[in-house]
Amino acid sequence: MLSVFDQGAPAPCPAPFNLAAHVLGRADQVPDKVALSVLMPHGAQDWTYRDLQSAVLGTGAGLLQSGLTPGDTVLMRLGNTVEFPIAYLGAISVGIIPVPTSSQLTEPETARMIDDLSPAAVLRDPAVSCAPHPRQIELDALKAMRDIPPASYDLGDPERMAYVVYTSGTSGSPRAVAHAHRAIWARQMMVDGWYGLRASDRLCHAGAFNWTYTLGTGLMDPWTIGATALIPEPGTDISALPALLRQHRATIFAAAPGVFRKLVQEYEQISLPDLRHGLCAGEKLSRALHEKWSSATGTELFEAYGMSECSTFISSSPAHPARGDALGHPQPGRRVAILGPDGPVPQGQEGTIAIHRSDPGLMLTYLNAPDEVETRMQGEWFLTGDQGAMAVDGQISYLGRDDDMMNAGGYRVSPVEVEAALSRFPGITQVGAAAVEVKPDTFVIAAFYTGPEKLDDAALRAYVEANLARYKQPRAFIHLSALPTGGNGKLLRRALPAYFEAPAT
């Protein structure tokens, strides 16, 4: 049998359609239910569904009154506050296209995005770095928009563009991934295929408001089915999370593997009487970490695999737990294959994980590299760039990247982008970047460089802090007499970790 798993086609997305209207579709049915609680040590800031919808549609009206029009693009440079999801959904509600970005990005990085996108405006928290733009709508103005009489949802073709997210490209140039309004419709396949989510759930996500993992799993998906989202206030220490989960009676807890890792390192036992299970994504979850969490809490972790171009589409779930180290099954409604050069490989064989081009969650295009889309296609399949194998029951195991993309802390980072930044530093003649393991299951980015002499680590750290977002910054700098190369003189990035010596523990 070939490695093709077809879970049946999902119901077609209705038309006319609006992503924000779908997310807040339960607001009129449960107006007084708490949609969002921002968790604090001694209480919470609550937003009902009525409050949330009013703020979103008021913001949409305010953006239109500011002179923006449907189809305009706005770059989001906002911090880790509730204003982020309100502005995001507010823009989408009236047909404006938001581009959410990490607040960790530096001014040079945002300058390249502005050149790339030519946005009509920047939604800006003055505390968040951003390159100059002639039209900035600042945080106070956005907050004031909440009180404006609400706009009507801009309904239209579900295939039209709704939002754009940036992802690191293998070329080193971040790719602007354009998504349609229908992308939110596709996320329904995660409700049973990963979350096991119910309207009665209180889902806590440990991430920041302005992280796309939080935005989708932590906020929009619970709101879509009328559940309650719980987000710890900015600055919450990871060690405080168990007490917050107990206090606010979280039933599902979502985070990147690093959060679960730190919790089980700090606590042998974690009492979470209301928790049904945890959700994990962002990087591969090790079986050892899964077992430590289960031992400490008595609950399971369910992992998901995806990418910026299609969100998650393979996962384990309460109904279908993963077996051993496997990721899990393709979600209901997904068509997934494992491909070799000539198409689907036999079950059990290694190949490239691929999603069918008809998937409603698949992106529209790369705005800054539309031709690259076809290079990622193999017939009717979109190639992820990750290697996997499919068992006879459809469970898929992750076997690593087929390129040099790095994953440290839940973010995928192109080594080319890191290398391009460091190559401009005086005294570096050649540089290579790779993820290295500093302790079991913990990876950081390291930079390996050549030059006349070893450079000052503090100066290198200061330079990358000014030129790269925190999650892209190398944490170690290793001076070598020469970098490993192949017979054609090309840098062998996969050989670099062997030159790294992990610090003694």
Roughly how many Å apart are the termini?
47 Å
CATH level-4 homologous superfamily of the domain at 406-499: ANL, C-terminal domain
Q: How is the biggest beta sheet arranged?
A: 9 strands, mixed
Structural class by secondary-structure content: alpha/beta
Q: Could you list the spans in which at least 5 consecutive residues all have pLDDT below 50?
A: none
Number of DSSP strands? Answer: 28
Binned, the helix content reads 25-40%
What is the 3D form?
Answer: globular
- The CATH architecture of the domain at 406-499 can be given as 2-Layer Sandwich
Largest sheet: spatial strand order: 3-2-11-10-12-13-14-15-16
Task: Describe it.
The chain is an alpha/beta fold and 505 residues long. 26% of the residues lie in helices and 28% in strands. A 9-stranded mixed sheet has the order 3-2-11-10-12-13-14-15-16, sandwiched between helices. Strands 1, 17, 18, 19, 21, 22 and 23 form a 7-stranded antiparallel sheet that branches. A 4-stranded parallel sheet has the order 5-4-6-7, sandwiched between helices. Helix 3 links the parallel strand 4 (73-77) and strand 5 (97-100). The termini are far apart. The mean pLDDT is 94.
Give a short synopsis of this structure:
This protein is an alpha/beta fold and 505 residues long. Helix content is 26%, strand content 28%.
